[in-house]
C-alpha cells in the first residue's frame, strides 16, 4: 500500500513538474533562451487565478483565466523585452547569455510588482475538491480526489498539446521554426510570430503548473513562496533530463523526477527534500548527458 | 524581363561580397550563375530571397520593387529559395517537409494536391513519405528540398548548389529534373553552381561572377565555347 501511495504521489507531483518543464522547452525551442522568469510568470498567473476565484468563486473559471493571463503576459515579455535584447545584444561575448540573465532580472521584477499590488502576505486558493486521501479497505491513501483531478487535467492538456504539435499546420510551423528557422522563413512561416506563440503556450502551461502546485500544497502562496522556487528548479531539471528540446522528454523527465523524489523522501529520508532534485539531475547528467530522449548531435545533421 | 537586378551591393560587415551586380532573367528562362568559391554567388541569392539585406541597388520582380523584402513575404509573391546544403529539416518527415512548403496557403485540399504533384515528379519521395528526412540519401534530400520549393507554387526558383556533395550520376539526374521543371512549369530559374559545366549545359543563359562582380553574361552555349571561361571555370 505504501508503495502504491508513494508512486501515485510521485506521479502527481511529476505531472506538475512536467507542465513546468514543457514551459521551459517551449521557450527554449522558440528562442533558445532558458527562461528563469518562468516561476515568476507562473506565480503571477496564480494571482490572476486568485482574482478570478475571489470574484466568481469557481476554480474552473480561475484555471482558464490564469492560462489566458499567463499566455498574454509571456507573449508581451517576448514581444517587448526579448526582441529588444536580441536586437541590441546580437554580437559580442554577452550575446548568448544576455537574454538569460535578463530573465533572472525579470523574475525579481515580477515578484516585486506582485508585492506592490497584492502585498507580501499569504493568499489562499481553495481546491475545487477534497485533498483528503481515498480510503480503501480501512486504510487511507495520501492519493486524493484532488490529485486524481490534477492528473486527469494534465493528461488532457498533454493530449491537446500533442494534437496541436503533430496534427495541425500551426504545430508544423512551431516545429519547423524550432529546428530550422531559416528554412521555415523561406517556406513562408512568420517565424517571429511563431516565437511569440511559443512563449504564450509556455505561459499557459506554467499557469496551470502554478495553480496546481498551489492547491496540491497547502493552498497558500505569496511573492516569496518557496513552492514556486521548488517548481522552478524541478521544472528546469525535468526539462534538462528530457533533453531540453523535446516535449515528450519534458513529460518523461517530469514524471521520472517526481517519482524518484517521492521514493527518496519515503524510503531514504524526508530531510532530502531540497537536495533530491539536484542529485537526480547530477546522476542523469553523468549517465546520459544528452538527456533521456535527447539524441546526440541530431541537430547538427 | 521578369527578374531585374540593378547595381546590387551586399556587405558582410566590412567585406563587400556582392559588388554592383546587375542582371536580368526573362520569364521561363534558366540562368546559371557560375564562379569560384567566394565569388559572391550564395550571397547574391540570399539577397534576392530576402535572407541578406543589400546595402545598395534595386531588385525588381514582375514590375514590383522587392529590395529588402522579408523571405516569408517573397514566398507569397512566388519566389522560392532552396538554400545551400540540402535544405530539409531532418527532424520532420518527408511529408511534413513538403507540407511546410505550402503552409502559408492554408488550404488543405490544395496542399494534398501539391504533395501528389511532387510525388509524381519524384516517385522516390513517395516511397519514403512518412520517414524522417534524415534517413534519406543525399540525392533524395535534394529532391525533397526542391520538392518543398515546388509546393509553394513558385514562379521564380532560386537554387543554391543543388549538386553539392552528390554522386556524378545523381547530379546528372538532378540537373535534368531542374531543366524539365523549368520547361514544364514555365518557371524562371536562377541556378548557382560550382559545377559550371553541368549547370551551363542545361541553362539558357550564363552569368559569370568573380569577386562579387559580374564578369561575363552570354548564352550558356556561347560561354561553354568561350576560351577564357573554359580555362577559368570549365577546367580545359
Number of helices of chain B: 10
The CATH superfamily of chain B turns out to be: P-loop containing nucleotide triphosphate hydrolases
Unreliable segments of chain A (pLDDT under 50, ≥5 consecutive)?
296-301
Query: How far from one another are the termini of chain B?
Result: 33 Å
What is the CATH topology assignment of chain A?
ABC transporter involved in vitamin B12 uptake, BtuC
Cα-based radius of gyration of chain A, to the nearest Å: 19 Å
| Biggest β-sheet: strands ordered side by side in the sheet of chain A | 1-4
Number of strands of chain A: 4
Find the biggest chain interface. A-B, 20 and 26 residues
Straight-line N-to-C gap of chain A: 48 Å
Binned, the helix content of chain A reads: over 70%
Principal-axes geometry of chain B comes out as globular
Which percent range describes the beta-strand content of chain B? 25-35%
Shape of chain A: globular
Walk me through the structure.
The complex is a heterodimer of chains A (301) and B (236). Chain A has 301 residues and is mainly alpha-helical. Chain A has a single domain (2-300), classed as ABC transporter involved in vitamin B12 uptake, BtuC. Helices cover 72% and strands 3% of the residues of chain A. Chain A has eleven helices and four strands. Chain A has helices at residues 2-31, 38-56, 59-88, 98-118, 145-167, 169-179, 181-186, 191-216, 226-241, 247-268, 276-287; strands at residues 123-124, 135-136, 139-140, 220-221. In chain A, α2 (38-56) packs parallel to α4 (98-118), α5 (145-167) crosses α6 and α9 crosses α10 (247-268). With 236 residues, chain B is an alpha/beta fold. Chain B has a single domain (3-234), classed as Rossmann fold (3-Layer(aba) Sandwich), CATH 3.40.50. Chain B has helices spanning 41-48, 71-76, 94-101, 108-121, 123-127, 138-151, 168-184, 196-202, 220-225, 227-234; strands at 3-12, 15-25, 30-34, 56-61, 64-65, 79-82, 156-160, 188-193, 205-210, 213-219. In chain B, the strands form two sheets. In chain B, strands 6-7-8-3-9-10 form a six-stranded mixed beta sheet, with helices on both faces. The longest helix of chain B is centred in the C-terminal third of the chain and has 17 residues, at 168-184. The model of chain B has no long low-confidence stretch (mean pLDDT 93). The interface between A and B is medium-sized, with 20 and 26 residues.
